[in-house]
């Protein structure tokens, strides 16, 4: 039992944080329990500490909005936080969509879909083009464009206020990742993930690969939602430097040979 918990320690931590955050938003709306009010774009802890999604704020800036000190303070806190823990820790520890895409991925692995679709037919850079396009459209239209169509916002609004269109967004992303493209939404299209990948380049916390211990079983690459970041597996002892790593810890959990672990970035070592 203890071993089972240890083998899934990061998964358990991720689910606890994801569910707790959504529950706190829901509790603030339903019962006025104001520990965490708002939503993933803009919130307040204890009605005092602001938290603002930097990507949503960037869209607002492009749209010509004037930002309050509160919003800028919230952006500062969030950027500092994710520069330490890894930008895309947002994706694996906070975003509710991750629970849906993880499920699709799990089913794909269980039923061998990944073996059928060996080559990924789409570029992972699409997310950066969607990011740039959303800023251009925000500038032209005068409102935060992606916030209107974001399935992430739809799902979290659904969880906080009652599901409505949230169900449709959940189903579409689930089926898309299951049948069309492995890691399709989070790993290819979502501009929020694209934005946090840029912040993640500065992350202090990194997965580190120890070549000496590696037995080339490839379990880590099989479960990694951004397997391109593990290019050093079986080749070299190196940290994962790409901001696209979500710091989800799946690779660390599945490696039975202690060849992968989290470490603090060493700025002296290149
Ligand atoms: S899971 Fe561990 S031993 Fe297997 S290939 Fe990855 S790093 Fe090497
Ligand atoms: S390298 Fe490891 S921590 Fe990073 S995304 Fe892949 S599985 Fe998750």
Automatic annotation (TrEMBL):
Keywords: 4Fe-4S, Electron transport, Iron, Iron-sulfur, Membrane, Metal-binding, Oxidoreductase, Repeat, Transmembrane, Transmembrane helix, Transport. The keyword Transmembrane helix applies. Residues 205-235, 236-265 form the 4Fe-4S ferredoxin-type domain. It comes from the Bacteria. One of its GO terms (cellular component) is plasma membrane. Its EC number is 1.7.99.4. The chain crosses the membrane at residues 21-40, 60-85, 128-146, 158-181. Gene3D superfamilies: 3.30.70.20. PROSITE patterns: 4FE4S_FER_2. This is Menaquinol dehydrogenase NapGH, membrane component NapH. The gene is napH.
